[in-house]
Amino acid sequence: MDKLKNTPKITLATLKGFAKRNSDKLFVKEVSSFDGMTDCVEALNRDWKKSSISKKTNYYKTGIDGVYTVGSSRDYFCIYENTVYYGIEVYNSCGRSILAIKK
Fold first, then answer.
1. Do the beta carbons of residue 80 and residue 74 sit within 8 Å?
2. What's the predicted TM-score (pTM) here?
3. Range 65-74 average pLDDT
């Protein structure tokens, strides 16, 4: 956990490294997501779920279930922490999600 706090700037590489190191205990919470029917990002009422890493990726997916990126420095990352989980929050034009592990 302290490794993230000592990171001067969280990047996509930091996120992928965090996911790889903790692949067996990852959780994800999708807070908001882009909806093509309304052409905007809408809030989701979803709870934490177990996440996994896939070898299949495309431009919008990191290979981490529930985490979407847009690339070209248009993704924003910050440390997330509450009483139960610790991890990285990702937000961009596709929405906002949190990738975390239990404390």
1. no
2. 0.83
3. 82
